[in-house]
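Pilot study result, target chain (251 residues):
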Amino acid sequence: MTASTPVTVAAHAPREVDRALFTYLDDATGERVDLTAHQLGEWAARSAGLLRDGCRLAAGDRVAVLLPPHWRTAAVLLGAWSLGLAVSFRPRATAGLAVLEPGGDMPYDAVFVTPERLDDWLEDVPDGTHRYLVGTKPGPLADVPVGWLDWSTEVLRHGDAVPHYTAIRSSDAATPDGTTYGEWGGLAREMAQMWDLRAGDRLLVDAAEHEQPLKWLLAPLSVGASVVVCANLDRSTLDTRIAAEQVTRLL
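Predicted structure:
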């Protein structure tokens, strides 16, 4: 198989886990988070509240989300897009390379980054008016530098009731490079069709191989498939994982 072509695997009898729309696993730590569509919507609503009420952002403002595949990343992205924000989700911002986005040399209205990337001298984390560290482990961060806030703490200050979302036109920019919501939606559906991914499928994604949210978030959600994102995937137990999670497609 290629890195970007899902493999079809045998379907298994439905279990309770099928109710999870988004599952995050870490084979190195044993962490597991299962979120139903309603629960993911609640976290996206909290994220939207943080951006709207905490940061006072509105449609068209620019947000950088430099985070790995994770349930918290999904919440941040969906919350930002629900407000009509232009979201940069470049997987890497490598020191010495030009930022290939209009206004990329200007501070973003908000920046979300992991502590590991903030401390990595190879990473060129862009500046932002509001700056949040998003940990990939359970619980609050132990050490937050001056000028930054812990997302896991701040997001809980906002309600989880799904708000009346901003009216977004398909022609509005979803990313700072001008790619529209309609174009990203079309790309997600085309990718799902190319993979023969359908409603009811359960897609297992190796987080280390696929940082692009178009693959691990937008494409499956665009057709009603559920997602299992696995960090530090142990391929020696892959068959067991597939059976336990009722995975039908492997990316």
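One observation from the pilot: The chain has a mean pLDDT of 86. A full batch analysis is planned for the follow-on phase.
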